[in-house]
Amino acid sequence: MLTETLNELETTKEETFQKHFLPSSTGKMVWILGLVLLACVIFSACTGALPISVSELWQIIAFKLGWIAETGVEEQKSIVFWIIRLPRVCLAVLIGAALGIAGASLQGLFRNPIADATLIGVTSGASLFAVFVIMLNVRYFGMLNELAGAYSISFVAFLGAAFTTLLVYQLSKVTGEGGVTTLLLCGIAINAFVGAMTGLMTYLADDAQLRSITFWNLGSLGGASWTSVMAVAPFVAISLIFMPYLSKALNLLVLGESQAASLGVNMRSLKQKVIILATMGVGASVAVAGTIGFVGLVVPHIIRTLFGPNHRTLIIGSALSGAIVLTLADTLSRTIVAPSELPIGILTAMLGTPFFIYILWEQKRKRL
Amino acid sequence: MIHVRNAGFEVRGRKLLEDVSFSAKCGEFWAIVGANGAGKSTLIKVLSAELGTTSGSVLFHDRELRKYKLKELAKKRAVLSQQNNITLSFTSQEIVLMGRYPFYDADPAQRDLAIVDKCLKKVGIGHLKSRLYPTLSGGEQQRVQLARALAQVWEIENGLLLLDEPTTGMDLFHQYETFQLAKELTRKNLAVIAVIHDLNQALQYADRVLMLKNGCTHAIGPPESVLTEQTIQEAFGLPVQIIQPEMTPYPVIVPNVAPVYHIP
What we know:
The complex is a heterodimer.
Chain A lengths: L1 H5 L1 H8 L10 H21 L7 H11 L10 H35 L12 H18 L6 H29 L5 H25 L2 H12 L7 H17 L4 H7 L3 H6 L4 H23 L5 H13 L3 H25 L8 H24 L1
Helix pairs in contact in A: 3-5, 3-15, 5-10, 5-13, 5-14, 5-15, 6-7, 6-8, 6-9, 6-13, 7-8, 7-10, 7-13, 10-13, 14-15, 14-16
Chain B lengths: L1 E10 L2 E11 L4 E6 L5 H8 L7 E6 L2 E2 L5 H5 L2 E4 L11 H7 L11 H13 L15 H16 L6 E5 L7 H16 L3 E5 L3 H7 L2 E6 L2 E6 L1 H4 L2 H8 L3 E4 L8 E4 L9
Parallel strand pairs in B: 3-8, 3-9, 6-7, 7-8
Antiparallel strand pairs in B: 1-2, 1-4, 4-5, 9-10, 11-12
Protein name (chain B): Hemin import ATP-binding protein HmuV
InterPro entries (chain B): AAA+_ATPase (IPR003593), ABC_transporter-like_ATP-bd (IPR003439), ABC_transporter-like_CS (IPR017871), P-loop_NTPase (IPR027417)
Keywords (chain B): ATP-binding, Nucleotide-binding, Translocase, Transport
């Protein structure tokens, strides 16, 4: 190093010609993942009980937009596409993006790659609130119309998610510097509590309520309609637009709270923003699709491994690939046991768990 | 540049810091020494505005420290604290670039990246630029953190660098390099305030020494007058001898106790 200091003049001369760059590039990743997502959306829209070919799909869309005057595609296929297939694909994309973003940002906030909305109990909190409202709604709020009902459930689920996240965050801070163990123990406690509450409701519930409670626990996109898409879209859009602005602060948080503060991060406001934005998406998606686990855990892991841990890349990448994963998983869930369908929560947990264990294994191996 | 006037800090009735006053000027290298629990880290936290004083005041560039916004302070001083655990696999370069975050909005300019490179080379880890931080050894990690703090104050005029035990985990050579670097920074008109455990290093490099004992100022002033056999015994409870070997330009502090013989 002494010689380096002596040679400093020479090196500065060289450096003026040498261009500096960062290894992770967001632009390239967005292009790659964007194209993959588009392909997945087209694939998902074409696959199902009534197959639609790509050229038919093109004609259906072009006809609707008035680019072509007439089309040879059957009316039935067009209806299936616009009323059933497209809202479902849109919902999968939105919820996938929401879960991916929430996973990435919560992991950043907790400074812990294991903080997943399902594991730490955020999803449970959201579904508890939502189930509560549904039970009340069936009994007392029958007068709420469909869209207002969907919005109010989304909002309440968001409140539940935000409340639980805050609780877990405070608990994990009180009992230690947010270590993995504390975090998971908090998750266990909250999940157990919610399990007890759900059990209580199951005990009290009638047939119709029982079915909706089961639905919350398994998670499914079966209820997709334009109404549910509209109910979720604004929540997801807000977190999608604003979350990337927090990526620098989340990066600094990696250094620890006090070091982040010395680099100009206001912890209090960052915490509030992240919790609100992350839980908005989770809450809304729980409201329309129930508990879908492991997307928020596995997706950020993959992005981190492929494109590095920088939160700007991570958040955008997790949104895109969360959408990809959920679109594919949903396609699989509705075709694998056709004409019936498998709840998507079962599928993501079944595929996600071994993958997660594999990631843990790899990480351990790499560090040795 | 930073004036501490009768600063005190207490938590639940326990006084961690009491009536500490000093003022560091630009271009000075201050060493804070003292036994474990003497309030050294608390003082660094007070100076970095992480903790507010419960009595007295701290003036930074002639303005109350508490009146600064966090973002403003980030452009005027850097802090290197004791614990630096990072579990996510950022590269060394990305960690050091974080020191430049207060100075750019969305994307780093070429200038920021050039500073990062220079700081990495300064602490002797230019070759570890793209290594993942969690895979580095303790001493190497500490040097990455030092480079990050360095990148933050690199272009600041009359900046302040606060170091809490900067040489933890470093080998002998890099400890020496770190203090040389701190001296070099003071020549660029920065003030450096560091918590130092090795009294010999404090004696050798510091311009001023502040010795704390139980949260109070025990001695303050130039190293030769602060680090005497008497004060060291009072603050640390260990009798020492200060000797001046013929071949070295600095006096050396050695424990003045009977050697422990190994009885077979």
